[in-house]
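Q: For a teaching handout, I want to show students what a protein-ligand complex looks like in token form. Below are the inputs, and the small molecule is magnesium ion. Please produce the holo structure.
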Amino acid sequence: MTLVSPDFQTHSARPDPAQTAQRWPPLTQSYAALGSDFSLPVAVTPLPDPVLVASSAEAAALVGLEPPRNAGEEHDWALAFGGHIEAIRGNSRATVYAGHQFGNWAGQLGDGRALLLGDWSDCRSEQRSDSIPSWEVQFKGSGLTPFSRMGDGWAVLRSSIREFLCSEAMAALGVPTTRALCLVGSSRPVRRERMETAAMLTRLSPSFVRFGHFEHFSYSGQTAQLRQLTDWIIARHCPQCAAAPQPALALLQWVVARTAALIAHWQSVGFVHGVMNTDNMSILGWTIDYGPFAFLDAYNPLHTPNTTDRGGRYAYGRQPAVAHWNLLALGQALLPLIDKPEHALEAVDAFRPQYVRAMQQQLAAKLGLEQPQPGDGDLFQELLDAMESNRSDWTRTFRLLSQLAANPQTEIPAGLATQFRHNPSRFTDWVAHYRARLRTEPRDDSARAKAMDAVNPAMVLRHHLAQAAIARAEEGDFAEVRQLLAALRHPFDAQTLPAHYTEPPADDAPPACLSCSS
Ligand code: AMP
Ligand code: MG
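A: Here is the structure, written as tokens, with magnesium ion included.
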């Protein structure tokens, strides 16, 4: 099978007319070395009138870049990350993958509007337990590729701001995620439900490989390439799997464990991904491809912000089941490399207990319990039921819970009680149960409150906050995007956050209704 499409634009050898003072670190090419069955050279289509919307100093530090400090440097960044500088865009490639979308086999997909530029070295300075071989650098919204199908190759400013802010917000919450280095806007008109403008996001990740990459090679019968990709991922990301009797099975077990931890972490911060197709599942167990995502306001396990998902397949509470389903698809794709299907099935079925354990750990930490104990499952479920029947705000409620004293003679703080105003008795019953449980804990109220405030954020990227920043950015004013980013950096520090960033939306605020159109 050949991936080369003859009418496709590849790189020209013309020198780059745009020169800037900035010197960019050299990009190396690791994924490209896998060969032309895996990715194709495709030229970036530069953005007209590029302007830097925002950059992430923290993401820049990962790859040893200084964030822009003045208008001149911002212009350099806009040119570089708007696709005008040969040193950055010069070896861009589109990778091929496939996927199951909404439970159906979608066949070949691939990077329809993203391009891999190469790798930058990991420049994280502090001591880390995890090792990252390098950071792959990717443009999203850089024009047509052979995999664009019906798409136009562009990404609009609206959805790119959402992905930019949420990537960095999730990182600050401690949730594994691809990173967003910077966002560049432009004057190019793009048609979605309305006319919008194009933007280009530069993403960083140790790998942009998805479950769908494995599915592509497996279901198209390219077993040698499937093995090559498996060996490559193992060598880069989990070298310990190479020594296992069946490395592909060990890789599957590794992905299962990381995905179970990821989904529990998502749910703990009230995150709904919104479109968990297998092409949007990272082989690293990291969050990837922010589209119609949301953070819960009122707790409703069946909430999905994705209007395309009429059956609620990807609703908040279904995410564990869907992750398990997606892991089955990955396991199936790896079968040619695994001796017996039962072994793959066993590996995937380890998801459920691993997820349950991870979720219990998350909920225990959210409630200030040092370790989950047998019987805590009921305590957790009773709280969730009380929250659901009261439409309690997810983030607010957990944040306020640290103010509840263990002593049954003390009052329930008013702000907390307000979250349960519709059906208070369910909550007061639960409080009695919780206080009894707290008496078995060694920590006093203040030590417990401190621990709870370190895991229950005061602020998340609520839909209405993102919308306000988008509305101003669409008028050409990026100040709110930048302020929001600065606040999202410190989601646990209530004292430093502007109060309105920590508040749920007004009762009459429109709900988050997002299509996949981005
Ligand atoms: P997503 O739903 O964004 O994860 O995308 C699913 C598939 O559609 C991937 O292959 C994307 O590259 C492709 N795609 C999404 N939007 C566009 C677009 N505007 N132009 C080209 N391809 C796109
Ligand atoms: Mg995607």
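A: Two things your students might notice: The mean pLDDT is 95. The first helix runs from residue 57 to 62.
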